[in-house]
Write a structure and sequence with these properties.
single chain; alpha+beta; Nuclear Transport Factor 2, Chain: A; 6-stranded mixed beta sheet; 3 helices; 6 strands; about 25% helix
Amino acid sequence: MSTSTMEVTGAALKSAIESRNGRMLASFYADDAMLRVIDRNNPPSRPREIRGQPAIATFFDDICSRAMTHEVATSVAEGNHLAFTQACAYPDGAKVFCLAMVELSGGKIARQTIVQAWDE
């Protein structure tokens, strides 16, 4: 099955995230998808919004190119929604923890919100 037609599931996201496969991750998003990031630098009143599959692909190319590990520990699906947790670690021991909520439409990710915190 090619990445362009792979079904978006918790297992598929886990595989792409943990293998740092930015191309596969980007293939899960609709052309007009929106990815919202909420963290210390992007608070709820001013979240970072990444719009469109090409911009989301660039975002994941950057994330996946970093020397760090990613582990998806939990995923839950209900209807057209999927949620998962992600724990990441840099070689120096700094950690990042993410919670993500995904909304699916037409078999692709239409909207995603990521809330993340990291060691400082």
